[in-house]
Every structure is written in structure tokens, then in C-alpha cells.
Amino acid sequence: MPPTTLPAKLPRASRSTFTPTVCSLTRAVRLMPRGPLARYTDHSGGLREVLALPGHGGSVLVLDRDAATWGDRRLVAHLAADEPLENAHLVCRHYLRDPRPRRCRRLAPEDLLTAPFPEGSPPREDGELDPLPPPATVELRDRHGRVHRLEPFVTGLSIPELRWCRRAPERGGYPQPESVRDAVACMEGYEPVRALTVGALAHHRDDDAVSVAVLRSELQRLDASRIVLNRGLRRAVLHAMHTRGLSLSEIAHRCGRVKRDGKGNCSGETSWLSRRVGIAPEGGGEGEPTPWIHSEVLAVIARDGLGISPREVEL
Question: For residue 51, how many C-alpha atoms fall within 13 Å in the half-sphere facing its CB?
Fold first, then answer.
């Protein structure tokens, strides 16, 4: 199903100094597009829609959601109050060139209560933007006790690169650079790694003393990747085994992963399922199970193996 046709020509987007007032907020709500900006069919055949909703202080939230249930709401963009409403159409048009809801984070309650600021910078009472704290002041510790934090890393360049670095549990260990993806894997969660990365890019966007090119490209690759975390799916599989009496063999069999013994008896390929959901290491070795799974495989296990929507196990 092709996206709903949008206006052929839209006014050029512009920004100006503007302070929202009661009148401007009323006007923004009155001029808000009625109904969705566009509808489209996603890769799994589900009907979705892109719409604009009034946000805090006259801002506009551009969302992607399931057209049937109005669930799985994803934040495509949060437009400031000084932007014309036509910009919502421009954002929608650009998004529909390659609509992938998973690239957008889920709508959070605080999005309805806050105005948009550049890359997450919090407002002050006087209306100015407070600088974010230096990235090196925030440390994350994974389940192995290793410390992860953003810090300048000296390479062959004339200036250091801002990178995620990992240190062993022992104090004084030499920092080892790691990608944003590796840091997410160690924490088995996109947050707060992603939020700290976005904040660090904002903090150093005008800093000529450190390079953020690698960090920015790593974040972009993470957001665009179809390889996603499997922690939510693993919990769902273990929960189904505990509460519904399902076995790994039965779940794998439902997914079409079948093996036969010497007598021709069929059973589910439990080793495949165990590796995909991060219970067993790859190749039957003694290493760490992978925290990643392809989004299409996640969908098969969730939908066919567990009988639930893949969205229920996305992180």
C-alpha cells in the first residue's frame, strides 16, 4: 500500500525567534492537521500511520504508530514551537522514503511534558541551555564489574577522539576503546548508553579540541541496524517456559526449526533457539552468549514460537 499522497509543494521551512503564548498554543492546536499525515504498510504487512500531535509549549510531536491499535508509538521528530506546522509534512515526507519504526525510540510520557532542545540539552529557568556535564564524569558498570565511560582517546590524529572506553574491574587498568554497539551489548540495554552518546555529541559539537566523527558514525550505524538486542525476547521465552509449560523444543518446532533422530522422530532444534535468544554461546563453545539477534528472526520467534507480537519483546 503506497503512502498517502502529500502536497506537491510545501513552503520552505524556516525558524525565527518566537516565544509561545496562550494565543499561539490555541492556534497551533486549531491548525494541527486532522487525521494522519500519511499511512503506509510496514515490512510485516501491518498498516501504520504518521501523525502530528500538539506537544508542550506549542511544540509538535510527529509520531509513527500502529493504525489499528494506536499502539507502538514511535517518536519521529519533536518540532519546536517556532517552526511552521508545514515542517511536520516535510518531516513525514522525508521519513516515508524509508519508514522503519524501530529506528525511532518509543514515545515517553515526558515527551508530552517537555519542549524540544538540541540533542537533549535541558532548559534553565532563564530560558538558556545548560551545558551538559563532561562525559568522563558519568560511569557505567556492567554485570562483570567493568567500567564504561566516554573519554578522549589518543590515536594517530592531531586531536584525540571521543570514544566509549572500557576498563577492567581492577583500578588503574588501561582503557580499551569500544564502539557504541559494544557498550550497548555489555550493558544489554540501549539506555543510558545511547542517551549519554547523544549528550556527548551535543556537548562537543563546537569543540575543536576533540573529534566526535567516529562516535557519531557509530551511533548512526546502531540506530540503522536491523540487528537488535535479544534480552526482551529471552525473558519472554523463559517466562513462557515457566508459566505456559512450553519447552525450547516446542518453541523451535513452531518456528520451523526441526531436526530428526536416527528413527525419524521430529523435535525442535533447541540449540538454534538457545543461541538466538542468548541462552547458549554460538557454536557450542564456552564463550559468552550473544546479546544480539536479527529483527526478522526475533519476529519469527515471537510471532510463531510464542504467539505474541514482536513489538512486545523489543527493547
Answer: 17
